[in-house]
Structure formats: C-alpha cells, structure tokens
Design brief:
By secondary structure, the protein is α/β, with parallel strands linked by helices. The protein is 27% helix and 22% strand. The protein is built from 8 helices and 14 strands. Strands 1-2-3-4-5-6-7 form a 7-stranded mixed beta sheet. The radius of gyration is 16 Å and the shape is globular. 45% of the residues are buried. The mean pLDDT is 95.
Amino acid sequence: MVRVRLVKRLAEGLWQLSGFPRNGINVYLMEDVLVDAATRHAGRRIMRQIQGHHVTAHALTHAHPDHQGASHEICQRLDIPLWCGEADADAVEDPELIRRRQPDTAINRLIWRSWAGPGHPVARRLREGDEIAGFRVLDVPGHSAGHVAFWRESDRVLVAGDVVRSMSYLTGLPQLGEPPGAFTPDPGRNRESARRLAELEPALVCVGHGSPVRDTRKFVEFVASLA
C-alpha cells in the first residue's frame, strides 16, 4: 500500500504521484511499475513518494526530457530495469538522439539542456501486445517514434502518455489538446494514434500533462474533431 499522502489512487492498482505544478508533468505507478520519471530534477521527489511501495521496474511512455529525466537516477537507486518502446530505446540509452529527433527550435534546445537526464541501458524493448502490470502495451507513435500507451481492458483504464494532453500549456487550465507541433516530429501520425485510443472508449485517460480524464464522450468527441 502506498503510504505517502501525496500519491493519489486513480483506479485499482494505479496511482498518480504529485508534482509541481500540479498535473503539469505526471508520473504514475501501475502496480509495481513506475511509469515515466519527469525531469532530471524530480528524482528525490519521486523516491520520497514511492517510499513504502514495492517497485520492481520502470517504464517510459516515450523518450522525451520531461519523461526520462530522472530515469537513470531512479533505476540506479532502486536497482530496477528500465523498459521503453522499441523505437525509442536507442534515444533512452543516448539522450543526444532525443535532441536530434525533436524539431530544431530554441524551446526544444532549452528543454533538452535543462531537463534531459543521463542515458540508461534498456532492459526490455516494449512491443505491441506486451503485458506489464496487468496493462497491454499499445504502439502509438507520432509524438515520438517509439511512443507507447498502456491499456487495461477490464476497467477501460488508459495511460496515454503525450498522445493527448488535458491542460493548456499557456494557462495551466483544463483543456483537451494535441501535443504541440514544436514537440512532435510527426503530428499526422500522432493523430492516427489518438484516433486509435479514442476507439477504445476509455473510462479513464491518464495523460502526461494535465489531470485524468473521466469523461469518455468528451475525449472521444475531441479526437473526432481533429482534422
């Protein structure tokens, strides 16, 4: 059982860690697997919040600096393996590839310098249909080449990473949206991935940025509105 009050239970076997700003850069626990690790400045906070919870592995939705930043530190301190999508594995091991694969903009260069963490060996390359912590791996590229999501059909819970967001990056207020093109090498393919997720009609959508979405109709209609 998670003992730290800052960890919020979202569903059976699924928790959201707290961060700053609230819901800004999300980290989750799926049973005994830590999903994403925010920026390289988040290691101490994450370790504090997972104290008392048996964590056996760390998985990434994708290889971006705000998701892999503390991965190396967490895996070293807990002595656990790191898993990620097959097409992102080389970038997880060599974060210089993250910078090269992002659109060459000032904001991406700043984010990479400020947030990216060290590389770390990938113990397991996740593929479509793999199962971790009772969730099935879905291959949903676009925001990154190896972006994956995690789907539990029994209660229609989806950990979607950055395929969609549920907050405005300008105001921090709730707002469904696509990840900005400045951070997304292939926006068209990401829209295809969003449509695939919407077809599942999830009851709970846990995103990388923003609060969990529990309104299935709103989520499905938003994705349907995309060009």
